[in-house]
Structures are given as C-alpha cells and as structure tokens.
Amino acid sequence: GAVVSQHPSRVICKSGTSVKIECRSLDFQATTMFWYRQFPKQSLMLMATSNEGSKATYEQGVEKDKFLINHASLTLSTLTVTSAHPEDSSFYICSARAQGRAYNEQFFGPGTRLTVL
Amino acid sequence: SQQGEEDPQALSIQEGENATMNCSYKTSINNLQWYRQNSGRGLVHLILIRSNEREKHSGRLRVTLDTSKKSSSLLITASRAADTASYFCAPSPTDKLIFGTGTRLQVFP
Questions:
Q1: A26 touches chain B (CB under 8 A)
Q2: Residue B2: is its pLDDT beyond 60?
Q3: Across chain A, what does the average pLDDT equal?
Q4: Chain A: nearest CA to B5, how far in angstroms?
Q5: CB-hemisphere CA count at 13 Å for A117?
Q6: With b meaning 16 or more CB within 10 Å and e meaning fewer, what string describes A70-106?
Q7: Is the Cβ–Cβ distance between A55 and A1 less than 8 Å?
Q8: Deepest of B20, B53, B83, B105, by most Cβ within 10 A of its Cβ?
Q9: Does the CA dihedral B11-B16-B22-B28 come out positive or negative?
C-alpha cells in the first residue's frame, strides 16, 4: 500500500511552454501533498505544500506564479511549470501524506525529469 | 535551517562490509527519518525514529538518535551491491521534511 505515482516520468519541452506534472496517491487519500525539486547530485528542496481544497504554501524563494499547484482532490495534485526556461530543468518529486498516518510520514512518487530546451 | 548534514558525503565499501552514515541537525525535532534514493528515482522511506527513542532496527538497518548531540546514525550491516544509492536524513520539527545533503554509498561486488 501507500503508492504514489507521477506522470509523466520524463518530459522535454521548448523554452516558453508550460508543463503539467501530475501526482497521484493510488491506494490512499492524501490530505497533504508536497512538491520538491532536485538538481543533479544535490538534495531535495521543498518547493511547496499543498492541502486538498486550499491554496498551496510556497517556500521562500519559490515563485508561486511560475509554479502553479492545484490539489483538487484527495488523490491528485498537479504542478504546472509555466513559461519554462532551461534553468527550470530539474527532477521534480512529489510526496503525499496519508490521512490518519503519522503526521509527517510521507510517501514519495518516482519523480519527473523535466528538460527545457 | 533545520537541514540535516550527512557525513561522509561519499562512501565506498566492499560487499559484506558495514556502512555507517551520520546526520547532524540544529534544532529540536519530533522525529527523524532516513530515506534512500537510487540514481534518478524517487525516495524510499527506510526508517523513522521518534525523539524519545534512542535506537531502532529494521532488517539490516540500525538507526540511533542522540538528541543531546543532535545527531543520528544509520548503519547498514552486511552491505550488498543493491545498497548502492544516496541516503538522506530528514530531521523533522514540523510536518515538513527538510533533507540533508546526502551520503552517496557505493558498494562494490
């Protein structure tokens, strides 16, 4: 149990386009989902926290107008990278916290590799 | 920042040897978690140790926590080539996970 999926796993796009990444909890309901970004050989950096039905909370330095997060249901959150540029190329990982589980026990998706040309 | 700092940054060992990774952090925590990440993949949760626990075991993994020193260690016994990965600690004072810089473990067959 506690499986989180991400789609797509890999995406290549042209500079200036927008890319949507989906994060789904497959066998549990996730009250909270988290989005992380990871550059090569570096740690995961938390971008934002999203709670179902409310606005996401962004970490300092993360542009909310550039990284749009929607958490419309208890099993789906989306991250849209708007007007992507090469510097947005990174590995994006989501995680989900299950209802009723330890308050910070998170289950991670497999990640999405974004390459902006 | 609550970010954990792992030590060493990189570790290379032979199969069958033990691997020890350390994590230090700065402020009080409720619990601390260890994760593994294979190259280009998502994170796999290994173990969670609460602030009132000193040691925890899970299979070949042993985690210790010393809240007075604000440090934790992860020991992998009888390592295997499949243990090759990056290992991250995540000390947690709140519901956020703030990851450390990680230890890159290479286990040679």
A1: no
A2: no
A3: 91
A4: 10
A5: 4
A6: ebeebbbbbbebeebeeebbbbbbbbbbbeeeeebbb
A7: no
A8: B105
A9: positive
